[in-house]
Amino acid sequence: MALFEQIGTTQKVTLDDTVACSCTIETAQTIDGHTEYVLRVQRGPHPENSWRILRRYNDFASLNKCLQISGIDLSFPGKKLIGNMRPDFIAERLNALQEYINQVLMNPILASSLPTKKFIDPDSYSTPFHDLALQYASMSLRTDGVYTLGQSLGPIGWRLRKHYFKVVHKPQGNKHSPGHSTTKHHLIKSSSQSHGKQHTTQVCVTTSTEKDYNSSTRDQSGRDDLILSWTEFGPDRYVDDREIHTVLKNYGGVQHPYIVPIEHIASNDSGALVIRKFYKQGSLKDVLCSAAPCNPFLSKYGSPKGRAPLPLKELALYARQILEAIRFLHSKGLACGHVHCGNVIIVDGVAKLMDVENFIFGVPSFYRPFFVQHSKINNCEAIDVYGFGHLLYEMCMGYPLQDSYARQIADCPDTLKSLLESILSRDACKSALPTLDQLTTHPFFSEYAGHFNDLYATTISVQRPHLKFSTTAKDQLKLAVQKTEARVRDEQRSVKNQKRLVRVQEMMTSEEEKKKIKQKAKHEQKQAKLRAQNSLQLNNGPPVPPASITATVHLSSSTGVIVKSDSANSITSPQEALMSPPPSHANSSGGNTSPQPPPSAPPVPAVPPGSLQLFADLQQPIPATSTSGGGIAGAG
């Protein structure tokens, strides 16, 4: 019993397990003859909330082995024994492992699993959550003296800090004192207590006890089987420690035809336990996936093979019943915040909402990573409407919406499509969602569940809804709602600012790339110009100093006009210009070709005498500073 006596002081959990993480393999390094990869992990949108870890190929392989139970096809690179230290192979494997971890983190089911969390964040998720839950639950029931804690049901839910156990009533007439409870005969030591290395394999195995519990709903005394859930308080728990016991006690007395009743609820400084009836058919998500409720979460929902949507009339009836349960909670100043298929039970054709106490526990919502991307979904009613939209979508399509909004909705009646678009379309998420009261009057419910109002009136006349809080508790709940909404808005502003920063960085990067391309083009143009000048110099001989360059003109034999010559440093008479052969060029091998014989000279045209005198005058030296003189080149 020493295990249960070593309970240290615990602090409030401030880590939000729903915040998405990204992982980048920066480089690889060789240490002691093996390759280690440097991983940079970032939680949320802020780069400063990041860290680096070292992982070997075997660590990736162990993760992949635990995730295989999901049935999801992942591209994991195979092992290589020879040549695995070559730099080119290490670079190739680094890219393959990067692609693999991207696939894992982009899948919500795989990303939220404990093996993945421990792989990318070992410091935050190395705590033995299951052992602590077993410890707290057994101590709470020991002092109660009514229930006996049975075996663990394993990781049947998506929350890492919520654990499920089988629980039964103690036999009547048992006079054991609380200190000598028979609980010890039913407590099952988890694998991590005796074999720490086997704890991860517990995630990948369905025990025979779970199979028996899947097929049984009554204990030996004929009573309904019960299930206990232990949940650690989350970052949104704002009810005062002195009031939370009273608030939870009031929650335990909730009565509503569309809310699952609570058999027992208790809490300590770290979390709370809730005991409810166990339903063998499982949640609505189990029904949609044709899954056994006590199978591991990864195997149930990773790649289910039996997905099927609900008939329209059943869909409309269940949706309308869930709406009334949510409206009832809001009428009491509460919020649900956790509307999804995993929190709905179907009992004899009636949909019932479950885990309504999660709001008091302060645990993050299942759809929080989605609605924090939309600043208009910033209050508790809008959050519940948004969750209801996802619930409606999954009932209609048979599979969940894997994005924050629906890009296209098809294969459903027009009224249902209109209802879904009013909640899940991009325009709806960017503007404003309908209220709960507006949803109840939508034409879809009038068309497929028109008799619901009469049915509901008859039901509440038999089972009157009840949930009552003291004045102090109401004030605490009101404050909790305000603080919860404030944290949502803060996170939405943070996400929005980070998105804006990313866009600015992309624009700056684009402008820098354009500038680099422009500079490169200018450089290439300059280089081409220099190459052309060098080629011209090679063709025309060595360059002549600028001071010795004189103006050169040609005299047109036909018009008597002086024109510029293509050759520098010489003045050529018309006769010479006509008689001179073209300049010789170097061949590709660097040598000079033999001079070609000059062509036969054409007849020399007659030149006027005055032009010859002008040409003779041009033979005289010209002062360098002269800027006048008829027909001197450069004067214009």
From TrEMBL:
Its protein name is: PX domain-containing protein kinase-like protein
Keyword Kinase carried by entry: yes
Compositional bias (Polar residues) spans? 189-219, 566-575
One GO term in the molecular function aspect is: protein kinase activity
* SUPFAM superfamilies reported for this sequence: Protein kinase-like (PK-like) (SSF56112), PX domain (SSF64268)
The ranges of region (Disordered) come to 171-221, 507-550, 566-636
One record GO biological process: protein targeting to lysosome
Give the CDD domains listed for this entry: PX_MONaKA
Q: Which Pfam families match?
A: PK_Tyr_Ser-Thr, PX
Q: Where is the PX domain?
A: 15-127
UniProt xrefs under PROSITE patterns: PROTEIN_KINASE_DOM, PX
Q: Which organism is it from?
A: Anopheles darlingi (Mosquito)
Compartment annotation: Cell membrane; Cytoplasm
